[in-house]
């Protein structure tokens, strides 16, 4: 069993919809939780970063961490076609472990 | 200016060949990495390297070797290529090592196809 499990997708949503992405993990030692966004034929780029349980907002993006349930989520509000990408969750233990990624397509 | 650049972008080669992928970062970072992304988008670290320490993921075959001529470069050499080596290889860098909250900057990837 992988340490980090991510909903595989793909997801296709209409423009303006809320996108919900989820990861679960088994390693209680994970301390830092991140979401990376990867556009087609590009390298991943850090989108959100959080340390503690709770919510963190950045514009249309909200990262949520529930350490007791070993569950993290990323929400994208008012999704735009430019949000179409693969989203990877990542966690540090201290080494970085990535989820397999969820590909999201936002239809105009 | 590209922060982390790697070449070539595409590499198609025959089984058994030896090939190299080059990586350069102009961010002044101390640590560089090589990641492998398979066809299912699963991203896995291969090496992390700074001027003091090379950390090798134990699952990486010894046909793969990183070579760093200086702090700004970390090249990946692959000997005796196998079909299973086909993947996208990403170079990355960070100010420190990923043992804290350092942000990784990735290159655009090299798609390796072994025939």
What does it look like?
The complex is a heterodimer of chains A (108) and B (115). Chain A is an all-beta fold. Chain A is built from no helices and eleven strands. In chain A, a hairpin with a 2-residue loop joins strand 6 (54-58) and strand 7. Chain A starts with a strand and ends with a strand. Chain B is mostly beta strands. Chain B is built from no helices and eleven strands. In chain B, the strands form two sheets. In chain B, strands 2, 4, 5, 6, 9, 10 and 11 form a seven-stranded mixed sheet that branches. In chain B, strand 7 and strand 8 form a beta hairpin. The interface between A and B is medium-sized, with 20 and 20 residues.
Record keyword descriptors for this entry.
heterodimer, A: 108 residues, mainly beta, six-stranded mixed beta sheet, five-stranded antiparallel beta sheet, 0% helix, globular, B: mainly beta, seven-stranded mixed beta sheet, four-stranded antiparallel beta sheet, 11 strands
Major beta-sheet overview of chain A: 6 strands, mixed
| Beta-strand share of residues of chain B | over 45%
Give the oligomeric state. heterodimer
Report the average pLDDT across residues of chain A.
91
Q: Unreliable segments of chain B (pLDDT under 50, ≥5 consecutive)? A: none
- Name the biggest interface: A-B, 20 and 20 residues
- Evaluate the radius of gyration of chain B: 13 Å
């Amino acid at each position: 069993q992988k340490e980090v499990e991510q909903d595989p997708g793909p997801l296709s949503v209409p423009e303006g919809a809320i996108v919900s992405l989820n990861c679960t993990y088994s390693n209680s030692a994970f301390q830092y939780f991140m979401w990376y966004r990867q556009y087609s034929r590009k390298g991943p780029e850090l989108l959100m970063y959080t340390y503690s349980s709770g919510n963190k907002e950045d514009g249309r993006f909200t990262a949520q961490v529930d350490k007791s349930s070993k569950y993290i989520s990323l929400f994208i509000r008012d999704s735009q076609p430019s949000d179409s990408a693969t989203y990877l969750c990542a966690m540090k233990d201290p080494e970085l472990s990535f989820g397999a990624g969820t590909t999201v397509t936002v239809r105009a | 200016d590209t922060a982390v650049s790697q070449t070539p972008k595409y590499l198609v080669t025959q089984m058994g060949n030896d090939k190299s992928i080059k990586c350069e970062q102009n961010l002044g970072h101390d640590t560089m990495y090589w990641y492998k992304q398979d066809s299912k988008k699963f991203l896995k670290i291969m090496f992390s390297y700074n001027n003091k320490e090379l950390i090798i993921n134990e699952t990486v075959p010894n046909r793969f070797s990183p070579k760093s001529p200086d702090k700004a470069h970390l090249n990946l050499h692959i000997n005796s290529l196998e079909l299973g080596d086909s993947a996208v290889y990403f170079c990355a860098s960070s100010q420190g090592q990923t043992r804290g909250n350092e942000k990784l900057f990735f290159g655009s990837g090299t798609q390796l196809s072994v025939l």
